[in-house]
C-alpha cells in the first residue's frame, strides 16, 4: 500500500489534512459525489496506514507550529485517538452514500457548501483525535463548532438560524468561559499543555481540592459532550438535514466532546490527582461522575416525552454520551477501554437510527412517532434496521451497546463503585420504554400508510451497512479492543 | 562625496524621518487635481514619501537594535534648551509600524479616496495624510514635552480635516465633535505640561523625569499627571472619554477609518505608557496614587462598554469602532496589571490590534464601497459575491476575537498570564474571557450577515459585485499575512516587546 512508504510523521499530518484537501476539491470541482467518496476513501486508507504503524509499536509525534514555548500545534498517534478518527472516517464514507440520495430526493440546494463544510468538520474531528496537547485540541474543537454552523443552518429558514445561534452560543460560550480557563490553569501550574501518560498534573505531583473543580470546568466547558446544564444545543441542532444530524450530532461532534473529556481526565489530570491508585477508588470522587449519572437518567426521562423522532434521538444521544463520560469519570484502569468501545458501539447504532429517521421522513413525510403506525410494512428494511439499532441502544447482551455497557459496569466494579451498575440497569429500562414502542408501532401495529416517494438505493445501502456494522460489532469488537489496549 | 552624503543622512535620520513628510506635503498640496494623471501624481508622491519613511524608520530600528538607543538634538542645540528626539526600542518599533502600515495601505487610498473624496480636494487630502503621518512619527520620536504637543496638534488637526472630507454629511458633525473633544484633550495636556514646567523649569523628558524623581511628589505633580493623563486618554479613546470615537471612525472615508484606527489611538497609548513609566515613574503613580486600581476599573469598564455596545450596533463600521474602545481597554488592562507580562501584552496588542483593526476597517470599507452602506442589511450576502474580501475580514475578525494562530491570540494569552499574579485574578480572567465571548458574538454577527443572509434586493440587480482589484486586495493580504505571521511566529515582536517592557519596568 502506498501509505506504508510515507514517513510516519508525514502520514499522520497527511491523514488529518486529507479531508481538508477534499473540501478544497469539492469547492474547485463542484458537489460531485465521487470527489467526496475518493476523499473519504483516501482518509480511511490513511487511517489504516496509521493503524499499521500503531501495531508496530511506533511512537509518532509531529510538531507543526510552536507559537510560544510549550504552546503550539502538535499531533501524536494514540490508540484512543485512532479509534475515534477511524470511526469518523468510515462513517463519513457511509454518510456520503446516504447523503448522495437524501439531499437529491429532498431537493436541497447549496450542495458545494454542504459537502465542503462536511469534509472540514471531519478534518476538525481528526485534528482532535490526533492532538498531542490541549491547545491543539482546543483549536480544532472551536474550529469544529464554527464549521458545523453552516451545516446546522443549511435550510436557511428563520427557525434554523435561531437554533443554530443557540448551538453556537452554548458551545462557544462554554468553551471560552470554562474550557479555555481550565487550559490556562493547567498551563500555569505545569508550564505545558501536553498529554502525558498518567496525566500531566499527576506526573507533576499536583493534587488537591482544585482537581474536582478543574474536572467540572473541563467536563462542562467541553459542552460537545452535552452534560445536562449545557446540553440544549444538541436538540437545537436537530433542525439540520438528516445526514448532518446522523454523522455530526451522533458521531463526529458529540464524540469529539466525550473523546476530549476522556483524554483530559486521563492524560491531563490523571487518576492519581483524584487520589485514585490502581484498583482503589478515587479519594475525591469525580463530580463529573454524578453529573454524568444525573444526565444519563434525566435525558432518558426527557426522551420519553418527545414525540418528534429526531428530538427523541437527540435526548437519547445525550443519555448515551453520559455513559461514555461516566466511563471516563470512573477513573478505573479500564475506563478508556470502556469509553472507546461504547463510543464506537453508540456511533454505529445511533447513525443507523438517524438514517432510518431520515428515510421514514423522506418516504412517508412522517416525523412524529405517533404517526408511525404500520410504517414497517412499507419500509421493512428501514424499520428492521431501526429495531436492531434500538436493541443496541437499550444495551441487550451480545449486541453492540450491550457489550460496551458491560465494560463500563466492569470499570465501575473495578473501583468498587458497584452501585453505578444499578444506574445502568435503570437506564436500560428507560431506554426500553422509549425505544420499543417505536418499533411496536412500525413493525406490529397495522395501519394504512402511503409511500410518497420510493427510497433511493443509496439510502438503503447506507442503512444496511450501518445496521450490519451494529450486528457485526459483537463479533469483531476485539479489533477495537486491541487498538485501545495499545495505550496501556 | 556620496559617503559623506550618506553619513549625513545617517546622522540626521531622526530629523529626516519627521521632516521629510513635512517637506513633501506642501508640494503635494499644490499639484493640480484636474486630470486623473495629476491626481495620480499626488498619490505617487505620497506613496514614495511613505516608502522612504518605511525604509528610514526600518533602518533606524535596526540601528537601535544593534547599537542601542540614540538621541538627536535638533540644530545641535543642547537638549536642555533645544529639542531632543530619541530613538529607543519602543518608539523605533512603533515608528516602523506606523510608517510601514501607511505605506502598505496607501494603494487602497487610490481607490477609496478617488471614490469618496471630492476630486478637487484630493491633493489636499494627500498633503493632510503626510502631515498626519509626520505628526504621528514626531509624537513617537520626540523627547520634549512641548514638541510632543505640537506634533499632537499637527496629527489631530489633519485628522479632523481628513474625517471631514468624507462625503457623508454626518462626517462633518463627527469631525466637529472630535475637534471639540480633541482640543479639550490637547488643552489638558498643555496645562499639565505647564504645571510641570513651572515646577521643574524644563520641558525635556529626561530632565523633567529626573527632577520629579529627586523631589517629593507634591500636589502640583499629581495635578500635572492627572491633566496630562486625561488629555492623552481622550486622544487614545479610553472609555469614558471616547465619545468622539464611534462616529469619527464610522463616517470617515474608508481609508481614513482604517488608518486612524490602526495608528492614531495607538500612538496616544504609547505616549500614555511613556508618561506613566518614564516621566512620573511607576513607583509614584502605582504605589502612592494607586493608579493601577484606577486603570483597572477604567480598563474593565472600557472592555465591557465597548463589547456590549458593539453587539447592539446595526452599522458595521460603528461596531468595529466600539470594538476599538474595548480593545483600548485590553491595552490599558495590560498596563494596569503592572508586571512584565502585562506590559508585553499591552505593547504586543498595540501592534496586533493595530494590524487587525486597520485590516478589518479596510475590508469592511471595500464591501461598503460596493454596497453603498455600512448597515448589516446593506452588507448581507456579500460573502458569496466578494469571497476574498469577506474571507480577509474573517481573518481580521478572528484576530480581534483572539482565535489561536492569529496575533490576537498571543496578545490575549500574555494578558491572561499577566493577570494570574494580580490581586483580583478571577475577576480579571473572567472579564477577559467574557469579553472574548462578547467579541465572538459581534464578529459572528458580521460573518453571519456576510455569509448566511440573502443579498438585499438593491444589490441583487447589480452585476458589478465582485472582489476589487489588487489595489484594494493587496494591502489586505499583506495585513492578513502579518496578523497570521505574528500569530504563528510572534517571537520577533515578542522579543522587542520583552526588551521594551524590561526597560520600562
What does it look like?
- The complex is a heterodimer of chains A (488) and B (505).
- Chain A has 488 residues and is mainly alpha-helical.
- Chain A is 72% helix and 3% strand.
- Chain A has helices at 8-29, 33-55, 79-105, 111-129, 134-152, 158-190, 200-203, 210-221, 233-236, 242-269, 287-304, 309-329, 335-364, 375-378, 380-394, 400-414, 419-444, 457-486; strands at residues 61-68, 71-76.
- Chain A has a two-stranded antiparallel ribbon with strand order 1-2.
- Chain A is globular.
- Chain B has 505 residues and is mainly α.
- Chain B contains 23 helices and 2 strands.
- The model of chain B has no long low-confidence stretch (mean pLDDT 87).
- The chains are: A mainly alpha (488), B mainly alpha (505).
- The A-B interface holds A 65, 67-68, 71, 73, 135, 138-139, 142, 150, 153, 156, 161, 168-169, 172-173, 176-177, 180-181, 184, 187-188 and B 403-405, 409-410, 413, 416-417, 420, 429-430, 433-434, 436-437, 440-441, 444, 448, 451-452, 487-490, 494.
